[in-house]
Amino acid sequence: MTITRRTILVTGAAAAAATVFPLPHIARAALPLKQPALPFAEADLAPVISAKTVGLHYGKHHKAYFDKLNTLAAGSRYADMDLIEIVKAAAKSKGADDVKIFNNAAQAWNHVAYWDQFVPGGSNRPTGNLAASIDETFGGYDGFTKRAVDVSDTVFGTGWVWLTRDDDNKLALIGYEDGNNPVAVGRPAYLGIDIWEHAYYLDYENRKAEHIRAVLDRLINWKVVEERINA
Prior knowledge:
By secondary structure, the protein is an alpha+beta fold. It is built from nine helices and four strands. The longest helix is centred in the N-terminal third of the chain and has 23 residues, at 51-73. Its EC number is 1.15.1.1.
């Protein structure tokens, strides 16, 4: 399953009551919204993600989403909202300006969740109830990583793969095009894999699957994922 902007507009209202976990480092404040600092040094994720990639990804791409969002939202109905409120409100709107605001707000939020889920060296594998849920849903951790790669191939062009919940409230890996994300349709976003080319191309060229496996095997802080699930 791949989620597009049209899917969000169709399903957003129906799922609006679902609980969405709060992200650290994002305060409830009016504009300008500030890009949080990385929770590690740029070189700390190497060799899985190089310092050069982190520098460009965080310092150029992620920063640009915050900068553009602050410009677009100034003086609008979004000006007094926090980031997650902007994402959810803009997702329900069809105006051209709303679409631009949604795209930048969603990507700003996506990347905060992305950086916060990493820890140098990772914690290798989930444990306890989360490990049991992954085993039950995906047939083990190898099945989980394979499913992540397979779902990434359903996303045409740029996008994300998110560990979230499906319509039956079961754990699921779902592909989202462009900056779309689970929170826009009221679903939780437990773990996100960025499959825009700027996330991996300098290090892996066209070997997207290798990048996904390396990230899942060596960088994920599964304690953070568990905290998001339990929030």
